[in-house]
Predict the structure.
Amino acid sequence: MNEIAAQKPKISRASDTTLTRDYYVSPDVFEREVRQVFFKQWSYAGHVSQIPNIGDFFLHSYAGESLIIVRESAENIRAHFNVCRHRGSQLTEAPSGNVKRFVCPYHQWTYELDGRLKRAPMMPDAECIDYEKLSLHMAAVEVWAGMIFINLASQPEQTLIEALGAPPAGLLKLEPERLKEICRDRLLVKANWKTLLENYLECYHCAGSHPELGVAFDIQSSFDQTADWGGTCFLGGEPLRKGLVTVSMTGELVSKPLGRHAEDRTPELEVAEGLGLLPVLTRVLLHIDHAVIHVMNPLSVNEVEWTSYWYVRDDAVEGQDYSVDKVAEVWRATNAEDKQLCERNYKGVLSRTFVPGPLNPRAEGALRPVLDVYLRMMDQ
């Protein structure tokens, strides 16, 4: 063996694969996922800046359900299913607003902000119906570092704080509760949601498909980082190339530094904080000057919505401190590329000849551990 061959790193035997075809194409599998997966995990819904005042609310859609996210009090936020307990009418179609109570437009059943039935015309409490048994159905909601997360189960098996723990010091320095949304994009991807999940879990395709992301993103380091994504959640951001400040087309700042980083005399390099929730993916990415949050919303066996939210410091001024196009530039390009990749990949999976092939042990090392978590959820 010559010296060059001796120095070449040993490559593990490729033995893992993705799932068999039925998991991606079967409507029956999708319906089971609704019960076993979608109604059992945490997902990002929005930011506290959207509902600063009591009575402020916004609508959020996830897994075919419409939720009303409302500030009940200075301390409490609720997530109600947008379904009247009388005949099922949606209580509101307004994307956001402020109310004292929720009044069903159909028969004027009226609910307090906490979901309790207040009034049903011509149906007095106790005498005709029991109001206390007809509160709005609720989803679980938790706020973690200024970010609002929901779980469609009213009593989840694990709270979000139990799953994630307290926010780490590096993330707190960014003061994520002091963000404001500057734009959001929704993409309809015509593929099974797990096709999109698998695409995000690996960067084997990144060098050849994402030139914009590759400017600041350290692709090689990502292989080692994603190898630890084996549970339902994880902490950490995406690694930056050495010596760069943020994810942008130049690696330089695109907005004011967040939180206490504004006090730094020179920008700190390679700041990358965040979290991930799996298997239906929420990915929170915080850099020194902005944040981007990606959220997956399965719609059907062959359609999934991919929403990206961009945030900057709450006192940043557009046109002076940031340009929306510059902040969103990298991920807008990357999302468009991934949409095309996933849809093309899914067209191949639809073929009756499809059999999953071996995964790259290093560059696709996160896929099988996460899919195994999914399978355990499906078997419960």
